[in-house]
Amino acid sequence: MEQVMELETAILNRANRLAVEYRERAERSRDNIQQEAHKRLHLREEREVLLAKSKAERTFRRQVQANELKLQKEMDHLRWNLVISVKQQLRDRVVALAADEATYLPLLKQLIAAAAHSFERNELTASFNNRDHDRLKPIWDSFYQELVPDKTISLSSSIVNTIGGVIISSNDGLIRLNNTFEGREERLENRLHQIILERLFPAGTVQDNLSSMR
């Protein structure tokens, strides 16, 4: 289980580093957006000075609000794209890990053991993707029994669509634990998303930028 925790820690640390990198890019894009917005507002203000004070005030406020909305929309779009990019890079690293048999198979054994030990039942079924099924079929009994000697786990012929990992289920299929990379990613989703957003956009960043335009 220690390798599983190390993998999750590595994924979260990688998300942190990537998020910081993308935040720096986002800040440069934000500065460009702000400069353009200030330029347009300055030109608008000069023209409005020639009009009646009340009309100029109303027009200026409407323009400021419109630019605030536009900037907010652009920043939201940028944030969403950066989050997707960071998560895709993490996914690519997991794909590379699954392809490295020397590193991946010990980790897979840990994932099997962690899932199997969560069941009270002693007879279980394990399902894998096609690559792992073919890898494990010749060595299945000795592979899982090293860490789960007290249970009987059958190798399912059903193939799972996953990058890697395992789904352990009761033989009747009523209880299952998804310990695939996708399953664990889903359980880490909130924490992973929080880390990415915290590093990309510290609290108040967007609102502070909008306030500075007023």
TrEMBL record:
The keyword Signal does not apply. InterPro entries: ATPase_E_C, ATPase_V1_Esu. GO terms for cellular component: proton-transporting two-sector ATPase complex, catalytic domain. Keywords: Ion transport, Transport. One of its GO terms (molecular function) is proton-transporting ATPase activity, rotational mechanism. It comes from the Bacteria. The keyword Transport applies. Belongs to the V-ATPase E subunit family. This is V-type ATP synthase subunit E. It comes from Sedimenticola selenatireducens.
